[in-house]
Amino acid sequence: MLPIKRHIDLRVVFMRVLEAKALALLLISLGSCYFLLHVDRMIVPAWLRYCLRRLRITPWILALLVLCACQAQLFSLIIMCPMEAPIDSFDTLLASNLRIFALREEFDDLDDEFRARYALAFRLTGNLTRFFQLRNSFNTSWAYPITAVKWVVMNELQSYFQRPVFRYSELCLSQNYPYSILLADESIFRRRLMMFTMRSRSSGLINYWMRHSLIDMVKADRMKIKDYSTPSQVQPLRLQDLRYVALCLGVGLLLAATVFVAELLPFYVNVWLDSL
């Protein structure tokens, strides 16, 4: 079972807004503004100077559009923050920060090729008590292997939560176990076993047993009905939430100071040369 998809980090939100294309377009607009403001100092033909004067407002409008678009996108991402990319394969799991917390004995029973390829996706333990404690307490720091029957019980317990915490994943480990029931075609038990399985499923006996296993385990004091989900609360704005805004402000002020010094440098260089 895998944790429910989480919202993307605040850093990723700012990185989506401040993409390279938007920053490049903004810098080109500001550079064009600077160029057009100093067109009178340049030696250019009169007709070209006339055309450039008429185009002075264009970079300002373009810069305003870029700033408004970035601000609108930032507000939309903060109000409706997108989710992280879903994990639908073991390769995606390897690329994410999530790992499967599993028992070492179960991992050793997996196929050798699978273990060699996806060993980094697992965090193994030999402590059976700790494994069940983390999984039964719905600790979202890890993903956990679970059988389909056990998941019905866990999912039934999640119905008492404020919101679901885990989801059942299609990442199947059972196909990598070298276990199967070998039953010959001519076995006298083959037909009886198939009929028993079919009747149990068609009558709803297995589904009924799985759905009501939670109540039976609660009555036996093996499980407790408790809300393990973390309620989502609106928190006030903190100073550390503005660190990316302060970083952008610092970069902007540094860029403005650099341009200001570059404009004053020729004047003071000429004054210094005249004083020699």
From TrEMBL:
TM annotation in the entry: 20-37, 57-80, 244-269
Transmembrane is among the record's keywords: yes
UniProt name for this protein = Uncharacterized protein
Keywords (A to Z) from UniProt: Membrane, Transmembrane, Transmembrane helix
List the source organism.
Answer: Drosophila mojavensis
Question: Which domain of life, per UniProt?
Answer: Eukaryota
